[in-house]
């Protein structure tokens, strides 16, 4: 690859061309000024980045040594906690404080609703997610198992349609009840003197209409901060049979979307990164489009416009038509070939992300910015995989340096801190304090957090089966502490407190039953795997007044560190052989099913069948927990290398069968010598020595080899 030197730092020529031709125009910067500033930032922050990574390794070595000297379950928790404080793993708790974050859009600060995470490399998925601010409730019920049964026949199933309409109007009766009667019996909606007829039990829930007052095209309601739009059109198949002419009900759904450069993408070289940045640029410009085949015909998708409505008092108002977008940069660990430092080594990829994604975001918040994604004038960056407050403070300083380069006021770049590493969980208040002027997001995530839990205490002993992890004391403390500490630090009304992903996009009935638990915790967002899931999850935020719950939740005592630091070790490891085999197969199948797409096809997130053929939306976090669990059992003699090898070979055959319909798929059996199979095993056999148990270093190395094989 050709490089261009800028003040001693070498930047890949394709990256320079992309920035100069696509990102600099309209930014208010010159190319020379940007590259000079970028070179200075790489010189200033790269060494510190490496030092922080070494701190991780040093702490891990001390913890490994402690467990070597104190093997098995921890019996003296006070001594264990004192040790963690002595080595600096746990830092002193800060004095009570409140965050000072300002200029935050309501979708993040004051509203409660679903959040999507979408791989930045897939333009079609990105557009679907950005447009998922409004979703059809009729479609979500009609085509999923959210209602019992399923649609029959290739055409419209009137029986299923009637079932959908009945359920949807029951929800209207629940959320925006009429003064008398049911929405099912309404023969027409109209607006008279600023009020809806038929009258609502609570007239304040009527938010507006489109069309003419006496013959509206739609009427809008607003409850718990979220809109519901009832569409009226008697010319459609559905509307012509509906007493009121209702043809659909739209839910305000995905308030926010994280456009992901990290766990859900396979971006391993400069070309991949430019492709990802290009989609972020299209979103900030508002001109991203994607043409694809659907039903044998080309279809072009672009970003939805806003909704123009008339308020009850007759005034014009515009509602956001798209999800508010956050961009997830990579963490501190990985390096990039796109930038070479003065000594010829690769530069931190996270520093490059900070520079390029925020430069692109000037299209929205810069001097000539559109102010479409963030009318409040902020850039929202989610930063994953930070370990403790020192690493969070590093990000704060990095973002400040980028703001200075881009001519932005301090704290224009907001940060979302993902609470997915054990050292961050144990020091969450201190982490929030380190970015108290720019924090807009904290969340919990079971998979990565459990992967780090296993790796941190890898040498303590054998862990409990993976499926038992969700019932542990540390998980309960982790989830409760995240919300409690967030509320105590003043995030309510200024930032999001989020919960994790519902991974099964085909099991919407189960999601409707179970995921209401997330808003009940006081979290004002939670991750969903698809726009359809966002539409259905929005129901929960009408059923639960999250903001109203928070005062009571804040009165509850915050769980102490003791349960959070309880290591999930098995007390009795004398499991029957079939239990061990089943656990190994479950982990191996999950690893193979994801890795084979990552390595061979460059797919970082997709619906992957699990061992029971249930499709789950998987990303790298899945690999981290599964590979770390297998590595732990191998280390402590629960299984042998031969058993692990055999499980991988059996499951490779199963994964081959599950992907038989994919023309691009490369079978692993019977030779078991492909790069994807080799990578999957390496994640386990080398898992104990991977930094923090992360999968990126191995995945990237094998994907680079595969791309070379493919001539890509």
UniProtKB/TrEMBL annotation:
Q: Where in the cell is it found?
A: Cytoplasm
For the ligand (acetyl-CoA), the binding residues are: 117, 124-125, 264, 301, 529
Q: Which UniProt keyword terms apply here?
A: Acyltransferase, Cytoplasm, Glyoxylate bypass, Magnesium, Metal-binding, Oxidation, Transferase, Tricarboxylic acid cycle
Q: What is its EC number?
A: 2.3.3.9
Q: Tell me which GO cellular component terms the UniProt record holds.
A: cytosol
Binding site residues for Mg(2+): 420, 448
Q: Which GO terms describe its biological process?
A: glyoxylate catabolic process; glyoxylate cycle; tricarboxylic acid cycle
Q: Which residues carry this modification: Cysteine sulfenic acid (-SOH)?
A: 605
Where along the chain is the active site annotated? 328 (proton acceptor), 619 (proton donor)
Pathway membership of this protein?
Answer: Carbohydrate metabolism; glyoxylate cycle; (S)-malate from isocitrate: step 2/2
If you read the UniProt record, what top EC class would you report for this enzyme, in one word?
transferase
Q: Where is the Malate synthase N-terminal domain?
A: 16-77
Residue ranges occupied by any Malate synthase C-terminal domain in the UniProt entry: 580-673
Source organism superkingdom: Bacteria
Malate synthase G alpha-beta insertion domain residues are: 156-222
Task: Extract the PANTHER family matched here.
Answer: MALATE SYNTHASE G
Q: Which family does it belong to?
A: Belongs to the malate synthase family. GlcB subfamily.
Instruction: Give a short account of what the protein does.
Output: Involved in the glycolate utilization. Catalyzes the condensation and subsequent hydrolysis of acetyl-coenzyme A (acetyl-CoA) and glyoxylate to form malate and CoA.
Q: How the protein assembles, per its UniProt entry?
A: Monomer.
Protein name, please? Malate synthase G
Species, as recorded: Pyruvatibacter mobilis
Its taxonomic path starts at: Bacteria, Pseudomonadati, Pseudomonadota, Alphaproteobacteria, Hyphomicrobiales
């Amino acid at each position: 690859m050709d490089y261009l030197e800028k003040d001693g730092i070498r930047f890949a020529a394709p990256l320079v061309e992309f920035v100069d031709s696509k990102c600099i125009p309209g930014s208010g910067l010159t190319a020379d000024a940007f590259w000079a500033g970028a070179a200075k930032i790489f010189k200033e922050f790269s060494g510190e980045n490496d030092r922080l990574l070494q701190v991780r390794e040093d702490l891990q070595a001390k913890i490994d040594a402690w467990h070597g000297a104190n093997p098995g379950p921890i019996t003296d928790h006070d001594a264990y906690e004192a040790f963690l404080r002595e080595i600096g793993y746990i830092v002193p708790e800060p004095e009570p404080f409140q965050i000072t974050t300002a200029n935050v859009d309501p979708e993040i600060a004051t509203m409660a609703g679903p959040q999507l995470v979408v791989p930045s490399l897939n333009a079609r998925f990105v557009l679907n997610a950005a447009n998922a601010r409004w979703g059809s409730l009729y479609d979500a019920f009609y085509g999923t198992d959210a209602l019992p049964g399923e649609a029959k026949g290739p055409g419209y199933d009137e029986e299923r349609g009637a079932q959908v309409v009945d359920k949807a109007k029951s929800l209207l009766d629940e959320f925006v009840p009429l003064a008398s009667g049911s929405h099912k019996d309404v023969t027409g909606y109209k607006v008279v003197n600023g009020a809806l007829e038929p009258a609502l039990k609570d007239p304040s829930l009527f938010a507006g209409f489109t069309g003419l007052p006496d013959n509206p095209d739609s009427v809008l309601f607003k409850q718990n901060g979220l809109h519901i739009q009832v569409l009226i059109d008697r010319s459609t198949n559905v509307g012509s049979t509906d007493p009121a002419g209702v043809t659909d009900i739209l839910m305000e759904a995905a308030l926010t979307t994280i456009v992901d450069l990290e766990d859900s993408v396979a971006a391993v070289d400069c070309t991949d990164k430019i492709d990802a940045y290009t989609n972020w640029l299209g979103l900030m410009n508002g001109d991203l489009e994607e043409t694809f085949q659907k039903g044998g015909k080309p279809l072009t998708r672009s970003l939805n416009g806003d909704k123009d409505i008339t308020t009850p008092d007759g005034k014009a108002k515009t509602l956001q038509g798209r999800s508010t977008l956050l961009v997830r940069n990579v963490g501190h660990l990985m390096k990039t070939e796109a930038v070479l430092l003065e000594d010829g080594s690769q530069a931190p990829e996270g520093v490059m992300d900070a520079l390029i994604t925020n430069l692109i975001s000037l299209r929205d918040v810069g001097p000539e910015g559109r102010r479409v994604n963030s009318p409040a004038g902020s850039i929202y960056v989610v930063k994953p995989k930070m370990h403790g407050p020192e690493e969070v403070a590093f990000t704060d300083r990095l973002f400040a340096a980028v703001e200075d380069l881009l001519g932005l006021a301090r704290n224009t770049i907001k940060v979302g801190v993902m609470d997915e590493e054990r050292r961050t969980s144990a020091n969450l208040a201190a982490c929030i304090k380190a970015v108290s002027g720019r924090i807009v997001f904290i969340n919990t995530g079971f998979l990565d957090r459990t992967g780090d839990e296993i790796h941190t205490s890898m040498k303590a002993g054998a862990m409990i089966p993976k499926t038992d992890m969700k019932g542990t004391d540390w998980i309960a403390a982790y989830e409760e502490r995240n919300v409690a500490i967030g509320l105590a630090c003043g995030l309510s009304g200024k930032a999001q407190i989020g919960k994790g992903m519902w991974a099964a996009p085909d099991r919407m009935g189960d999601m409707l039953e179970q995921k209401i638990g997330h808003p009940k915790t006081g979290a004002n967002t939670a991750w969903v795997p698809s726009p359809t899931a966002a539409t259905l999850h929005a129901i929960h935020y009408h059923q639960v007044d999250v903001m109203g719950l928070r005062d009571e939740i804040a009165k509850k005592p915050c769980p102490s560190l003791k349960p959070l630091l309880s290591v999930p070790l098995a007390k009795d490891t004398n499991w029957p052989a079939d239990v061990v085999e089943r656990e190994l197969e479950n982990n191996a199948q999950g690893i193979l099913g994801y890795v084979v797409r990552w390595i061979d096809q460059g797919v970082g997130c997709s619906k992957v069948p699990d061992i029971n053929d249930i499709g789950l939306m998987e990303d790298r976090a899945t690999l981290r927990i599964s590979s770390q669990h297998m590595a732990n059992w191998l280390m402590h003699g629960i299984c042998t290398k031969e058993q692990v090898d055999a499980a991988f070979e059996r499951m490779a055959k199963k994964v081959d069968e599950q992907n038989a319909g994919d023309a691009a798929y490369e079978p692993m059996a019977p030779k078991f010598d492909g790069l994807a199979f080799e990578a999957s095993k390496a994640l386990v056999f080398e898992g104990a020595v991977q930094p923090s148990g992360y999968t990126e270093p191995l995945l990237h190395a094998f994907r680079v080899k595969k791309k070379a094989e493919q001539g890509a």
